[in-house]
Design a protein that fits this description.
The structure holds 2 protein chains of 2 kinds. By secondary structure, chain A is an alpha/beta fold. Chain A has helices at residues 2-21, 40-57, 70-80, 87-96, 113-124, 142-153, 178-189, 206-215, 232-238, 246-252, 268-283, and strands spanning 24-34, 62-67, 99-106, 131-134, 163-169, 195-199, 220-225, 256-259. Chain A has a 4-stranded parallel β-sheet with strand order 2-1-3-4, sandwiched between helices. A 4-stranded parallel β-sheet of chain A has the order 6-5-7-8. Chain A is elongated, with a radius of gyration of 23 Å. Chain B is an alpha/beta fold. Chain B has 3 domains: 31-179, Rossmann fold, CATH 3.40.50; 190-318, Rossmann fold; 414-478, no CATH class. Chain B is built from 19 helices and 16 strands. Chain B has helices spanning 7-23, 25-32, 69-77, 110-114, 124-129, 131-139, 155-166, 169-186, 216-223, 247-252, 273-277, 286-289, 308-319, 321-324, 338-348, 383-391, 414-424, 444-452, 471-478, and strands at residues 45-48, 54-57, 64-66, 84-88, 101-103, 119-122, 143-146, 197-202, 209-211, 226-228, 234-235, 242-244, 259-264, 293-297, 398-400, 403-405. In chain B, the strands form 5 sheets. Chain B has a 5-stranded parallel β-sheet, with helices on both faces. In chain B, helix 7 (155-166) packs antiparallel against helix 8, helix 9 (216-223) packs across helix 13 and helix 15 packs across helix 16. Chain B is elongated, with a radius of gyration of 29 Å. The mean pLDDT of chain B is 92. Classes of the chains: A alpha/beta, B alpha/beta. Chains A and B meet through helix 10 and strand 8 of A and helix 17 and helix 18 of B.
Amino acid sequence: MKKIVLFMLLLIVIMSAVGCSQPDADKKAMVIVSFGTSYADTRELSITATEDAFKEEFASYDIYRAFTSQTIIDILEERDNIKVNNVKEVMELLTKEKYGQVIIQPLHVMNGAEYDEMSSIVAEYEGNFNEVKIGKALLSSVADYEKTVEALATQFPETKDGEAIVFMGHGTHHDANAVYGTLEYAFHADGYKNVFVGTVEGYPTLDNVINELNENHINKVTLMPFMIVAGDHAHNDMAGDEEDAWKVLLKEQGFEVETYLHGIGENKEIRKIYLAHAKEAIEGEDE
Amino acid sequence: MIKKYAIKTWIKIGVIIIITLFIARPWIEKGLNRITIFDTKDYEIDFVDDSGYRIRMEKPADSVISLYSAHTENLFSIGANREVIGVGKYSIYPYEALLKESYDYRSDPEKVIASHPDVVIIRPFIERHSPDFVSSLRRSGITVVSLYPNNFEEFDDYIMKLAKIVGKEKTAKKKLEDFHIELDNLKNKDINENEKVGVYFESSDREYKTVTNKSMAAFALELAGGVNIATDAIPIEEGSSIAAYGVEKILEKADEIDVYVTQRGVMGAGGNYHSISIRPGFHAIKAVKNKRILEINQKIISSPTFRFVKGVKQLKRTFYPEIYDKIQEFDNNHLITREEFAEILVKLNHDVIFIPTSSYYRDEDKEHYYGALVDVTIEHENFDYIETAIRKSYLKSEMIDNEEYFNPEKYVTREELARVIYLLNDMENNIDVIINDEENIEKIKIVKTIVSNKLMNLENGNFNPKRNITFEELKKGLDL
C-alpha cells in the first residue's frame, strides 16, 4: 500500500512538472520586429504607431516589440532607461510565459540579411511553442509591389511634367537588394513614370537616379525616405547639408529639391500591408 | 621556538635587516620599476611612464608604432613623421597618418612584433583593456611606453616625454611655446564679465554627464569666454575628467544656458542636435529654444593635442558670432580669392569647422578627402575654412595627376558665385531666360535660375561665367 501511495505521489510530481513546461495553447503572442531607432519622435510616429495598429487588428494577441539593432537597444537602455528586447530575448520571454502560438511580423522592407538572421534565431526556439509563424517583409510578392506602389503614392500629389519623386532606400549586399529596382519598375508599370528609387549603400545608386532624372528632363525633385523611420539616414544622408547628402548632390546638378521627412512606418496604407502579411502568416498562407 | 632566543638577539636580527634593506635600496627600487638589477649603462632617456614603468633608452627611437590617435597626431606635430612607422586603426590625423601601416591592440600582437619597432607607445587604457597584448610586446623585448596626460597642466610634460622618445625635444619645445602664445592670444578679452554666455557642456548623453572643472573642455570654455553652468559637477571617480550631472540639474538651470555644447565623435558621447532638441523638458532650455546647440568633435576639445586651439576658436565663434564671425571688409573693387570666399561663406553661415571621424575615410569613392590638398596643408592659415567650405560643397577641389589642389589664391568666378547662391537658397527653377554665351556655362539651369531671380545680372546678354567677381558683386549676390 505504502509503495502504491509513493508511486502515485511520484507520478503526480512528474505529471505536474511536465505540465508546467508545456505551452498554453490559448496564449497567443505577436512580435513586431524592426531595426529600431534611438529617436523618440520618429519611433512614436512610425514603429509605435504601427504596433498600435497591430494591437487593434489582433486584439486576441499579446503584442511584443523587438529590435534587431543591438547598438540601438544599448543606447536606449543606457541613455533613456528604455528596455527593448532583441529577438533572442523576446523568444526567451515568450517561452517563459508559455505562449502556445507565436507570430513574428518583421517591419523589414525586404526578406534580406536581417530577415534571415531573425528567422534563424526564431527557428532555435520553435520547439518551445505549439506553433511559430513568421510573416513576410514588405516586398515579398508581385501583389506586394503593387500595393506598396499604391500606398506610397498616397504620400505625393500627381507629379507634373519635369517633376519627380525620388525614394531613398538603404541598400544591401544581400540578393534581396533587387527589390529597389523592381519597386521602381512597378511604379513605372503602374503609370508613375516620374518616380525613381535609389539606395545609400546598394544599387541603384544616386548617380543612376540622376541619369534617369536627366533623361526624363526632370527639373524638380522631392526626396522621400523608403525606410520605416525617418532617422539618421533621412536627416543626414538624404536631407543634410554636407557634400555627400542627396539634397546637396542634386542641387549641385541644378535640380530644385524638396524633402519629405517621414518614414514609411507613418504611412497607414503601408501598415495595412504588414497587417495583411501577419494575417497570412496566421492563416498559414505564408511561412 | 621564539622563546628560545633572547630579546637582544631579535633586536640584532632586526637591525641587520634594516641595514641590509638600506644598502640594497637602489637595487630594490630598480626591481620595483621593472629594471634589470645589474644594469649600469648610461641612459639618454630615463623617465617613469603613466603606467608606472621606468623607461630607459640609450638613444632616441628610430622606429615607433603609436597605438593611440592623440600620440600619433602629436608625434607628427613635433616632426616625427619618419620615425612613426605604424599607427593605431583610429589614427586619421594628419592625413599622412592614414598612409602608415595600421595596427590594432585588439588583435594579434604578432603583427606589431614582426615589424620590429624600437618603441610602441600606448596609453594606460590600452594596458587595462588588452593586458595580454601589451605583455606580449614587452616579453618580445619591445620598449612599451604608456602615456596619457590627465589634465591640461600635464600636457607639456606629456609632449616632452613623447619628444624624448623620438629625439625631437627642440621642435617640441618650440611647438609648445607657440601653442601657449596662441592660447594666450585666444583668451577672450573682448567680452565683459556680465555679458558672457552661460554654457552647458555635455560629454555623454548617458546619464547626462558633463566635465570637471580641471578638464581640457572646461578650460576651453573658460578661454573662449563662456561661463560653465555646471561647475558644481562631481567627478564620476577620483581623477576623472567626466562628471555626473543629471537632467534635473540641467533643467533647473534652463534659463542660464545660452549655448548647449555637445561633444561628439566617439561612442557614448553627447547627443546630437536633433536628439537634444526632442528630449522631454529640454524645450525650456534657452539654448534649445534659440537653436544654439553646438556639436563639437571631441578631438578638438578633449583630446590632448595641439588641435585644442581649433576647439577654442570654434567655441568663440559660436559664443559670440557677432564678433568672431564678422565678415572682413574689402574695397568694392577687390577681387575675391577662393580662400577669402571660403572664409566668408563659413562665417556667413556660422558653419562649425569640419573635423572628420574615422568613419569618414571608410567611403572609398569620395572626390575629396580631408587633409589631402597639396596646396592647403594643415599648416595653412585658412585650412579649416577651406576644408569646411569643401565639406559644405561651397567650393570644389581639382585633381591634377592624381594630386588634389584647391588653388586658394585663384579668383572666384561668376559661375562659382552663382552655384553657391543656388546651394544656399531654395528657389524655384526658372529657365525661361536667354543667355548668349550659354555654351560657356557648366550648369545652365543654375545660372538661368539665378539670373531670372535677379540675383546676378547679364552683361550685354552674356553671363561671362569665367569672369572674376569683386567684393561688391559678392555682397550683392550673397545679400551681405
